[in-house]
Design brief:
heterodimer; A: 292 residues; mainly alpha; 14 helices; 80% helix; globular; disordered N terminus; B: 352 residues; alpha+beta; six-stranded mixed beta sheet; five-stranded antiparallel beta sheet; 9 helices; 20 strands
Chain lengths: 292, 352
């Protein structure tokens, strides 16, 4: 008996080490190495070439365009996502599961198809083509098309992240706030929103990352007009196709830095409010129920 | 605040949650809505609060038709079963919430709010806990925060949904007494929902027993307990022994006893219900012979399981006697005793 018990932890620790090693190896190969490769390739021709690549007017215009698109698409998707999640989580109505499926549609559809949808709708021979041409409105092969395609592709992130959080939240706290005399807006701003803010933050981060990095749909609607409708991922591709590897990776490293910056911002927010960090989000039951 | 419900009904799809409820609660009273789960008691409470709108019928608050009033205009405090504390706020902020969201011209100054919140936290014996978060409190403490928060806006009506359901017996007992005292001191009207008949009888001035969305019986707790008008209420309010009522020739019989019931009343299927403490157990001759199957001491009372003659042993009768009486008589398992029925109620057999 005692011999077996003594043997077990040893065997367990060997197995544990093996598993940890496998996990670390996997992380290293699939996450850390690519990141390092991006930066080493970007700097392969020296710091001067790197600086030249990222201060190139075309690169700067791509950065500006990407940030513009993100600045429009992410806030809109936050509003849509919160409204959709709130409707789905807190109300019973017919067609609710159909709406949920519809929200997932952008995940299911290939981004290239998503881009083509907008060409078919707003292109010169599309459904609204004649109307748009008559009024000299450019959507496809212009910034509005890129924004639309980005909104479409990144729509599910905020809603998907918030639906389970809001379902777990229930209606009790909101109804209590109303009984205490709060108005609908006061209830939303002071009760609903603070309680979902971590879920919302994750949704925004995911949405933001995808909006910056979206390639397929944007590639279809952009028209690749250098300096005008080239976003950062498109610019990277053009440089790469021109065998300008170092410049391509230099711009790619900017994208990677933007992603790292958002992650850092998230960690900072969590660190500043440890009281209400992930624990509160992940264990709603402990705070919600008594010690029955 | 007085409450009147007139003919109130509410359906969810095809399911009738409550049907044709008539209810009156005078100002300053404490009413308990009791019934098994799914009987519609919480729906009635939510209709009074304004969290649900009835499909038919009306709600009068202080004599005025409030059926369509939103909850924030009703001056009610609502305490949820799981307290629904705002978990991103401290205890102090929770209690202050109702005062801080008042429109600017009605809102007290920050100093006045702080004074009031501190006073309320003292009242619920949580003066020390203002800076804590709800997650750091025990169940009973959270319940008291929820009460203080509801009382902060000076409600004329306090509604509580299973207020003590999630608490252990000791805490529950203390909180009950404390709530009753608070109710009398502050003089508001209270309505609470519970599935615990003892809680209702102990705490309320009057109780309403609900079953399948309808009122079975209402009245003072003692009155309802002593004279249940239906076998449902009788069964719901305590332990029950069930005896078939049989016709033997021209006589009505209850077990081996002939009883005094007009023959006409005994037509159709009937059942007699007897509470365990209404059966006398003795060794004196006469009565209904029964064998003692088990003796259980439950604190101050002793419960006997008895296989009465002529009944299946799988369906024993239960009798209760005081610990003192048991000490004198000392019944043991296996002996034969004699039963006498002191009191019973006869009801038509439920048709289900």
């Amino acid at each position: 008996m005692t011999g077996r018990e003594a043997a077990r932890p040893k065997h367990g620790s060997a197995g544990r080490r093996l598993l940890i090693a496998a996990a670390l190896l996997f992380l290293g190969v699939f996450l850390v190495m690519p990141l390092l490769v991006v930066f080493s390739a970007a700097l392969s021709k020296g710091v001067a070439a790197y600086a030249a690549a990222i201060t190139d007017p075309l690169a700067l215009s791509a950065v500006r365009l990407t940030l513009t698109v993100v600045a429009i698409a992410v806030p809109l998707n936050v509003v849509f996502g919160v409204a959709a999640a709130w409707t789905i989580a807190k109300f019973e109505f017919r067609g609710k599961s159909a709406l949920l499926t519809l929200i997932d549609l952008p995940f299911a559809v290939s981004p290239v198809i998503a881009g083509l949808i907008f060409i078919l709708l707003f292109g010169s021979s599309g459904w609204f083509g004649a109307f748009l041409q008559a009024h000299a409105i450019r959507i496809v092969f212009a910034v509005p098309g890129i924004v639309l395609a980005t909104i479409f592709v990144t729509f599910p992130f905020v809603a998907r992240e918030l639906v389970p959080v809001m379902q777990a939240q229930g209606k009790d706290a909101e109804e209590t706030a109303l009984s205490l005399g709060a108005s609908g807006w006061q209830t939303f701003w002071r009760i609903t929103l603070p309680d979902i803010r971590w879920g919302l933050l994750y949704g925004v981060l995911l949405c933001n990352a995808r909006a910056m990095g979206e390639f397929g749909a944007v590639s279809v609607v952009s028209g690749h007009i250098r300096g005008l409708t080239n976003t950062m991922p498109l610019h990277v591709e053009i440089l790469y196709n021109e065998y300008n590897i170092a410049a391509a990776f230099a711009v790619a490293s900017l994208l990677a830095l933007l992603a790292l910056a958002t992650l850092a911002a998230k960690s900072m927010l969590e660190w500043r409010e440890p009281q209400l960090g992930r624990h509160a989000l992940r264990a709603p039951d402990r705070t919600r129920r008594g010690q029955a | 605040m007085s409450i009147v419900l007139r003919g109130v009904s509410k359906r969810y799809g095809a399911y009738a949650a409550v049907e044709n409820i008539d209810l009156t609660v005078p100002t300053g009273a404490m009413l308990a809505l009791v019934g098994p789960s799914g009987c519609g008691k919480t729906t009635v409470l939510r209709i009074i609060a304004g969290l649900e709108t009835p499909d038919r019928g009306e709600v009068l608050l202080d004599g005025r038709d409030a059926t369509r009033w939103p909850i924030r205009d009703r001056k009610v405090g609502f305490v949820f079963q799981h307290y629904a504390l705002f978990r991103h706020m401290t205890v102090f902020e929770n209690v202050a919430f109702g005062l801080k969201v008042k429109p600017r011209r009605e809102r007290p100054t920050a100093a006045a709010i702080a004074r009031k919140v501190d006073a309320l936290l003292e009242l619920v014996q949580l003066g020390w806990a203002g800076a804590r978060f709800p997650a750091q409190l025990s169940g009973g403490q959270r319940q008291r925060v929820a009460l203080a928060r509801a009382l902060a806006v000076d409600p004329e009506l306090l509604l509580l949904d299973e207020p003590f359901g999630a608490l252990d017996a000791q805490v529950r007992h203390e909180l009950r007494r404390w709530l009753r005292r608070l109710h009398e001191e502050l003089n508001f009207t209270s309505v609470f929902v519970t599935h615990d008949q003892q809680e209702a009888i102990e705490l309320a001035d009057s109780i309403v027993v609900l079953n399948r969305g309808r009122i079975e019986q209402s009245g003072a707790p003692g009155e309802v307990y002593e004279t249940p008008t239906s076998d449902f209420v009788y069964r719901f309010l305590g332990q029950v022994n069930e005896l078939a009522v049989t016709l033997r020739g021209e006589r009505v019989c209850l077990g081996p006893f002939e009883i005094d019931v007009p023959l006409a009343d005994a037509q159709g299927q009937q059942v007699a219900l007897i509470r365990p403490h209404e059966i006398d157990v003795s060794r004196e001759a006469g009565g209904w012979p029964a064998k003692v199957l088990a003796v259980r001491v439950i604190g101050p009372i002793v419960r006997l399981e008895l296989a009465a003659e002529g009944r299946a042993p799988t369906d024993p009768l239960e009798a209760e006697l005081s610990l003192e009486r048991h000490a004198t008589l000392g019944f043991v398992v296996g002996e034969t005793v004699n039963l006498r029925l002191r009191r019973w109620q006869i009801y038509p057999l439920p048709t289900t």
